[in-house]
Amino acid sequence: MKFLATAMLVLMAGTYGATRFIGPIHPAIGFLKAFAEAAMVGGLADWFAVTALFRHPLGLPIPHTAIIPRNKDRIGDTLARFLKDNFLTPAVVARRMRTLDVAGAAGKFLASPDRGGTGRLRDGASRLLADLLESLDDDRLGGMAKSAIAERLRKLDAAPLLGQSFDAAMREGRHVPLLDGIINRTSLVIASNEEIIRQMVHERAGRILRWTGLDENVADAVISGLNKLIFDMADDPEHPLRLRINEMLEDLAYDLQHSETMQARVNGLKDELVANPAMQAWIDSLWQQGRAALLKAARDPDRAMAGRLGDMLSQLGQTLQQDERLKTMINRFARRAAVGAAASYGDGIVKLVSETIQSWDVQKVTDRIENAVGRDLQYIRINGTLVGGLVGLTIHALEIWV
Questions:
Q1: Cα dihedral: 277, 283, 289, 294 (round 10)
Q2: How many angstroms separate the CA atoms of 320 and 317, rounded?
């Protein structure tokens, strides 16, 4: 466009020179000369005006030229004030947010994330999340996550939780299957270790018992007694030994909830467990598994959305569209958040815009603005050339006819 506008100006100058050289050999030459002369003046005037916006014409420091480079900072301040006054005031934001149904839009997206091309938005968000997770320093972020988990475990008062769990389990009888399992397992342990029991009785029996062989009878009696005790406990829920075990468990549950000594002992064991290298390795594996799961879900949003998470999000989306009370509450929250952000950070955003423009290189700003509006400015030069020529033609015609 710049070449075209300049070519028209050169053409008008050539035409004017040609008409001067030819002379008034025909009345039409006068009209052509008047048109070319006025067009050349109009084109030069508009070239000067357009050029003066961005630089000094012909490099001459003419006053009131190079307007944009000289006023870059003022332009930045004006643009920042324009943004603040027309976009970032709480009243404007509140008025705009009243027309937006944030909850409804979120509900539609969650209920049918592939409708209307939003699948591309979801895929883009997933890729962004995956790239963000991969770009973070794994050692540093993992260390922070593991430290946070370990710190939470250290601050956890485990004893009352264990006591409450024991209490609830015993009230509902959930400890009975565990106790039955221990009793059955004990009978198997006795059966598989009879030789060890017999050897222990033999070693502790006197010489006379060993010489007479009565130690074998004693061992049989011990094994039989143990088996009878185990079988009786298994068959009788009200067996005295079972009742005694229940009392011990109840006392343990009480101490875990109310005894400072027991709580200190349990928390000390918990701290030792957290500090154990095996526990630290488990926490590390927990972080790696969580990170891998997040990356996998982010890279394959369709798979993630197809499972229970997808069903939950879809149900949430339907609720957001159908529950007017919830929708009103969310929209009100979004409006208050946006208005609060405008009130709190509007001046900061304005300052950021102003300081950013002020930090730009003058030539870079000038080139950007010229590239953005330069095509229309070259049309001004073209129109100035044509309009100037028509004005000159009109004046010449009036001079002849009047």
A1: -150
A2: 5
312-363: pLDDT as tens digits: 767 877 887 888 888 888 888 888 888 888 888 878 877 887 788 778 778 8
- In 193-307, where does DSSP find H-type helix? 194-204, 207-212, 214-235, 240-258, 260-275, 277-299, 301-306
Tokens of 67: 């307007």
Question: Quick check: 118 and 317 in contact, CB under 8 A?
Answer: no
Cα 335 to Cα 101: distance, rounded to the nearest angstrom? 10
Let me know: does 157 contact 267? Beta carbons within 8 Å: yes
Kindly give, in sequence order, each residue whose CB lies less than 8 Å from that of residue 235, ignoring residues fewer than 6 positions away. none
Q: Is the pLDDT of residue 180 over 70?
A: yes
Task: Compute the 3-state secondary structure of the chain and give helix, strand, coil in percent, each to the nearest 5.
Answer: 90, 0, 10
pTM: 0.39
- Of 401, 400, 332, 312, the residue nearest 30 (C-alpha): 400
Instruction: Give tens-digit pLDDT for 16-25.
Output: 898 888 877 8
Average pLDDT over residues 373-387: 85
